[in-house]
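pinned: reference chain
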Amino acid sequence: MEELREIAKAHYQAASPQVQGLAYQFYQSMDTDRDGWVNLSEFLTFMRQEGYSHMHNPYFFDELDRDGNGTLDFVEVMTLFYIIKSGRPFCGRCSKFIPGMFFSCVECFMNSQTSYHLCRDCYRSAKCNHTHNGRAQFLDNYTLLQVRRDPALARPAPPATGFNSNNVSPYVQNNWKIALNALEVALTIGNIAGTAAACTIM
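pinned: its structure tokens
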């Protein structure tokens, strides 16, 4: 969460004075009792009224409350604003907020109407039951961003050039090619989930 706080502060500091003023007005609007802080009740009321049901819980408030004093200060509210505007996800399995790296279902990501994300722990556990016609393909957020930027990354790579294979036995070369081809095919079309419907990056 600390990294998100630093990003929110950087955005605020880089903003024009007018935008900074609007940010402070937003903070004051959440502070309905005008005591200079946003308490849990004010936070929950705002989340409910604005329709952020997945953020409408004390656990998420505690995540935002960096100093643990039971209230949110200006920077903590700006962090909330950044989280909302940047679309930071909650885990589809454990429902916890994901402050760092996450894994996204590729099928859901390509459909702008839905999204499904997993935190590292839930992805590692391979116990999620999220598939599309028996198929599940998850990519981490950095890889997904790169694939959106350059779809060629999702296609099999051309054979490597400039590699001197004279010192490598044909048997080893063949095993490399088979393994590399299998990996590239898996990344291109996704892995057909078995009866366990395991979530996978491949």
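why pinned: The radius of gyration is 22 Å. The chain is about 50% helix and 10% strand.
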